[in-house]
Amino acid sequence: MLFRDHFGHHFDFDRFWTRAVDLFHEMADSRLGLKPGVFELLDLLDEKKLPRAIATSSRHQDVKHHLAFHALEQRFSAVVAHGDYERGKPHPDPFLKAAACLGVEPEFCLALEDSHNGIRSASSAGMMTIMVPDLLPPTEEIRGLCMHVAPDLHTVGSMLRAIR
Predict the structure, then answer these.
(1) Separation between Cα atoms, residue 133 and residue 116, nearest integer Å
(2) Which residues contact 14 (CB under 8 A, 6 or more apart)?
(3) I need a labelling partner for 63 at 20 to 30 A (CA). Which of 82, 94, 95, 106 fits?
(4) CA–CA separation, 117 vs 103, rounded Å?
(5) Distance of CA 101 to CAs 37, 54, 67, 118, Å?
(6) pLDDT digits (tens, 9 = 90+) for 77-129
């Protein structure tokens, strides 16, 4: 094991890992931010009576924790998380599973994503895809897979309001 090779035979990896996970959760709890416009977008989806799902690589318990932190548990029709599909992003499986849970054909789904692999996944599932960048800006490849790159969720809401 690399840690023992580096730190010596007596290195307690289990103790280290437990503490690292605890610190990660403490940090995540103190910095669980939302993208600006998320509540307004969810209100608009409610108003239009549109179902919505989360398709994520995260574990169910982490998603539930994050949703509860922001009182969003009841705002999604389905949550598709790690373990619910065979192959993760960039494969289409998470988004195909989410569409199936909603009872909507993938080509009638709008996928909002912030990651490159998420865009690849949603696009290969046949969904209309909008990137709302977070850490990485879109590349030319990613722009080619999206119907639009939006600077924020307020812009996505404006786009949806324009649809009659």
Answers:
(1) 9
(2) none
(3) 106
(4) 24
(5) 25, 10, 19, 18
(6) 999 999 999 999 999 999 999 999 999 999 999 999 999 999 999 999 999 99
Q: Which residues of 82-99 are buried (b: 16+ CB within 10 A; e: fewer)?
A: eebbeebbbbbbbbbbbb
Give Cα separations from 130 to 64, 85, 110, 144 (angstroms).
24, 22, 7, 11
Residue 45 has pLDDT above 70, yes or no: yes
- Please state, in angstroms and rounded to a whole number, the distance separating the CA atoms of residues 22 and 63: 16
Q: Assess contact for 152 and 132: CB atoms under 8 A.
A: yes
104-126: burial string, b at 16+ Cβ within 10 Å, e else: bebeebbbbbebbebbbbbbbbb
Q: Which H or E run contains 110?
A: strand 110-113
Other CB atoms within a 10 A radius of the CB of residue 49 amount to 6
| Entry field: residues in the chain | 164
Both tokens of residue 92?
């289409």
Block residue for tokens 């799902």: 53
